[in-house]
Design goal:
Hypothetical protein af1432, 16 helices
Length: about 250
């Protein structure tokens, strides 16, 4: 997992390198094969090799599996959070970020990875400031609520903590700036397109059953900055739950 994470700055990782890394991590190999054969990727014929699994899910998802495996081991779940629910929601956030990126001309694989790790900062908050996550989570939940409560209580957001982590690990600069800007993308200088995508995706992910009304409630200035077509969003808006299946593999 560590080697795959270090490859985030490499645009083209050779297939044989990916195969070798995964082959040395049996747990990661099993997760990859289960994901490739899951309903999330349709009713295709079953795959039984790492090469075929990588071809089906894509290198972005392979890296995401490595991230999930690493984060699961590196960070205990914070008091106030349920492990399975947290990673399911992170999966949803990543999926919605990728979907929106596809309609805004952004890098879809990078969008998935950035969305997936956006909430990792909340785990660190819970470890460094005991009790804060319990306080955040026990209150009524609505789109944008966590950002508001984090700023009010701590003066920074989970996305900004995730950005510092990404910076320390030498993740791509675009990912770092996007995570830093996610809670308030219109204030970011320079403007982070991926940060605005993250912002909208988080609002949708926090909506239990996204609908036409959810699109209408999104911040108009952010949508305008992204130049995204609201009609496109309404006609193709996915349910957050469709992205959650793979999170059970983590």
């Amino acid at each position: 997992a560590h080697e795959l994470i270090r490859s985030l700055n490499e645009d083209d990782v050779p297939l044989d390198q990916l195969r070798d890394v995964i082959s040395r991590d049996p747990a990661l190999a099993v997760q990859l094969l289960r994901l490739a054969n899951s309903a999330h990727y349709g009713n295709h014929s079953r795959v039984g090799t790492i090469d075929d699994a990588i071809a089906r899910v894509g290198t972005g998802q392979v890296r995401a599996l490595a991230l999930a495996s690493f984060f699961n081991d590196a960070f205990p779940i914070a008091p106030g959070l349920d492990r399975e629910t947290f990673w399911r929601e992170s999966q949803s956030y990543g999926g919605l970020t990728q979907w929106l990126a596809s309609g805004t001309g952004s890098d879809c694989q990078q969008a998935w990875l950035t969305g997936f790790m956006a909430r990792v900062g909340e785990l660190l908050m819970g470890l460094k400031v005991p009790g804060c996550v319990i306080e955040f989570e026990k209150q009524p939940q609505y789109p944008g609520a966590r950002w508001e409560r984090e700023m009010a209580m701590l003066g920074f957001t989970e996305g900004q903590v995730s950005a510092e982590l990404a910076r320390a690990w030498n993740f791509p600069d675009d990912m770092v700036s996007a995570l830093d800007a996610a809670a308030n993308p219109m204030a970011a200088q320079p403007f982070s397109r991926l940060g605005a995508v993250l912002h909208v995706a988080e609002l949708l992910a926090a909506t239990p059953t996204p609908s036409f009304a959810a699109v209408d409630d999104l911040p108009a200035d952010v949508l305008a900055a992204l130049d995204v077509d609201a009609d496109w969003m309404r006609s193709r808006l996915p349910q957050a739950q469709r992205y959650m299946e793979a999170s059970r593999l983590h």
